[in-house]
Automatic annotation (TrEMBL):
Cleaved signal peptide residues: none
InterPro entries per record: Glyco_hydro/deAcase_b/a-brl (IPR011330), LamB/YcsF/PxpA-like (IPR005501)
UniProt-recorded name of the protein: LamB/YcsF family protein
NCBIfam families: PRK05406.1-3, PRK05406.1-5
Organismal lineage: Bacteria, Pseudomonadati, Bacteroidota, Chitinophagia, Chitinophagales
GO-annotated biological processes: carbohydrate metabolic process
Pfam families in the record: LamB_YcsF
Coiled-coil ranges from the UniProt annotation: none
Amino acid sequence: MKHIDLNCDMGEGLDNDAAIMPFISSANIACGYHAGSTDIMKKTVLLAAEHQVAVGAHPGFADPEHFGRREQHLTDTALYDLVATQIYALQTICRTHNIPLYHVKPHGALYNMAARSLPMAQIIARAVKDIDSRLQLFGLSNSFLISAAAAAGLHTVSEVFADRTYQPDGSLTPRTQPGAMIENETQAIQQVLQMVTHQEVTTLQGTVVPLTAQTICIHGDGPHAVTFAGNIHQALLHHHLTIQHP
């Protein structure tokens, strides 16, 4: 039986976390910069532990007004500090409650920029390794986040998206473009099954590109997030896939 991880971005101040948590195996918890707060971080860590969901840090740009989805250009030192500070903040909460911190997944614009920028990906990988070399780094499949983390000696987890469309170069369709989000549940499930069972995805333009699917991201801020999570969970089980953290 094949294993697959199902992750969701959480601790962002939304009301869906408790409803989605039973369906996933990894939670990427906002660290207070793009969203969340110390209290929300603590609450979400404890909620994840209650459901035996692996806890991960979800660092983003300090831009709550735009939910961390606007690009910023920082110095190398500022970028390193941005990532390391957020990981350390969540790690401290986890240690206080004797709950393991398993992984790191950058958020929003930080994630997308590092996916296509090797220098940014290298700085993020170095920050993760300096905090704890045992941490896994989640990154877009076939991106610089994966190659830089692997070169740094980190364990990598290649991520694919259930509710985002893809471009022919394997990147995600920018949210500013039409068709970036998959709103149809059947389409989302079909894409998930294609990615997991065939390690490929059909792009928005209709071409097929290869990828590596080790973890599937669903977003918790969509209008149908809970329904999507539950039905994707059931579809994976129906196809004899075990849902578990890498």
